Structures are given as structure tokens and as C-alpha cells.
Amino acid sequence: MLCPARGIIRPMNVIVTGGSGALGSAVVDTFLDAGHTVMAVGRQRTAAEHPSGRLRWANYDLTTAEASVQLMAQAVRELGGYDVVVHTMGAFAGGQTLAAVSDDTWSQMMALNLYSAFYVFRAALPRLLDRRYGRLVAIGTRTAVQPAPGLAAYTVSKAGLHALVATLALELKGTGVTANVVLPSVIDTPANRAAMPKAEFGKWVQPRSIANLLLWLASEQAADVNGAAIPVYGAA
Question: What is the tens place of the pLDDT at every residue in 113-134?
């Protein structure tokens, strides 16, 4: 966060969910490189080290309300609090028409892409509102505003996330806390390359590009940006 009086960046405490994923890892590294302290959240890794000593790791299933509350409590214990929550956690399922989508797939997309954001942001808000400063940022998708066939469960869950952030932003006006969502097109990750080996990778969005945008949205310079749904489509 920019400190206007001195023109320097004041270090922030940042929670990054989905921190072990391809995008989440880039977000973690970007905030660390900018001098901030990061608590990365996931279930795949049990430990993490960084030369700066400013990285912590937490393991939670954030599809439950209780885990989200526990995460915020851990951030307070270990970091002394938090200024920013970047919710990169999510999952993808597609390739079936709505008529063919199973109950399990539908429920999984809602839990991972929508309910998790609801639980995390709700748990984070009391402290941010009390401090009258904070940044909440979520990762949506282009299909939330431009649906495509065969992606019903994924698209609806992300559209719900979009609506969640838009509603939250309206409720946060004048509080010093903002909520925004970023809408990437296809992200250039190893998993996406393996799933679509014949695609034009050069048109895809780089994780670091998204991470740099998130870094700005988390800053003091972005204080007037609230309720934005920002497209990051690359050349697609």
C-alpha cells in the first residue's frame, strides 16, 4: 500500500487462497516480490519456505464456514492481522450439456467456486470493517459474462461469484473496504496446455499478468475501484 506522506510502499499482510495452484503460486510470488507478507492457503502442501521469511502456509478446506473462520484466526495469530484477501481458489468442470451434468458435478462447482468465496469473505469482513481498510479480490472467468455451451455448472457458479462480489461492493461503500472480481479468459497453465494441446497458447493470459493486476487492486491507489468486474482476455 502506498504511503502518500513518504512515497513508499507499506508492507501488507495478504491471504491468498488456492495458493498452490498455477495462478495462486504466481499471485503469492508477486506479492512477496513486492515486499508483502503472505499466508498461502491450500490443501496440497503442508509447508513452504521463502528466503524472505514472509511466507506462511495454511491448510484448510474452505468449502466450509468453520474452516474460513479458523483461517482468519490463524492469520491474526501468525501475522497480527490481514489487509487483503485474494481468492484464487476454484475448479473447472465442463464438456457436458446441462441435461447431462450430474448432481455431484453441479454441487462441486458451487462449493469450490461460489460457496468458498462466500465463506472466506464473510469470515474476513468483521476485522476489515472494524479497521476501515481492506481489499477483497476474487478470480472469476470470462464465461461468467459470456457463457459457452457445455460449461453450465462452471459458468453458473462463477456467475454467482460475480454477483456475490457486486452485491458485496454495494454494501461496502464508504467503509474503506473494497471488493472486485477479475475475469480472465483461458490462463496459460500446464494443466490447460495438457487439456488443449492444439490451442494457440500465445493468445492465453499469463498468470503473472493477472497477479500484477491483483497487486494493484490490493493497493491504496485502487481505493476508488469497488465493484469492478475487470476483463483479462489476452489475445483471445
Answer: 999 999 999 999 999 999 999 9
As a whole number, mean pLDDT of residues 78-95 equals 95
Average pLDDT over the chain, rounded to an integer: 91
Judge whether 102 and 154 are in contact, CB under 8 Å. Answer: no
Report, in angstroms and rounded to the nearest whole number, the Rg of the chain calculated over CA atoms: 17
Beta bridge partner(s), residue 135: 84, 178
- Contact at 8 Å (CB) between 55 and 40? yes
Q: How far apart are CA 216 and CA 1, in angstroms?
A: 9
pLDDT of residue 236: 79
Instruction: List, as one string, the DSSP characters of 123-192.
Output: HHHHHHHHHT-EEEEEE--GGGTS--TTBHHHHHHHHHHHHHHHHHHHHTTTTTEEEEEEEESSB--HHH
Cα 11 to chain centroid, rounded: 19
> What residue ranges define each of the domains in the chain, with the CATH number in brackets?
2-232 (3.40.50.720)
